[in-house]
Amino acid sequence: MRLILLLLALLIVGWLVYQQIAGVPGRSIETPTGEAAVEVPRVPQRPQDLPAFEQQMQQFMHDSAEERRQRLDALER
Length: 77
Known about the structure:
Helix content is 62%, strand content 0%. The chain is mostly helical.
């Protein structure tokens, strides 16, 4: 009985390892199209690119807030 449980546990662990190695397909990000499409800054791959990324994110947040404010102003009129 212990041997069967051990084999079953090994089978489950093997299956989990296989799933982890195979990865999860379809991890794509859906972005809106049309006038709502906005260029989002890419996440840097190197630590040296972090200061530039921070500036890009600050600018992106500022632009997004300004765009939302303009849309709200247009809706209120």
